[in-house]
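Take a look at the protein record below and tell me what you see:
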Amino acid sequence: MDELSKQQQIVGRTVTRAVLADAVYREIGLSRVEASELVEMFFDTICESLARKENVKLSSFGSFIVRKKASRVGRNPKTGVEVPISERHVMVFKPSNILKARINGIEMEDEAD
């Protein structure tokens, strides 16, 4: 199956864990169970790292960055009542320049970022 056919199969669909596991099954030749376990291990590793407040960088894809947001006073937009918002951690995704270029249809050589 050529690259264009593979991309056309996914276009318009949400890429789920099942879709990723199926792609691993077709491309690498692992059994469906092994492919599913591999995808689960991949996501578990990323989730565990983020839970430890570690940033995760996937070269040529992007970075998942854990940021600390300070406590602040918010306001209920409907009533105007001030509400305290406690300190918390949030995760943000910063796409690599390579991914941004791909999204915009620009060809770039893979480079570490």
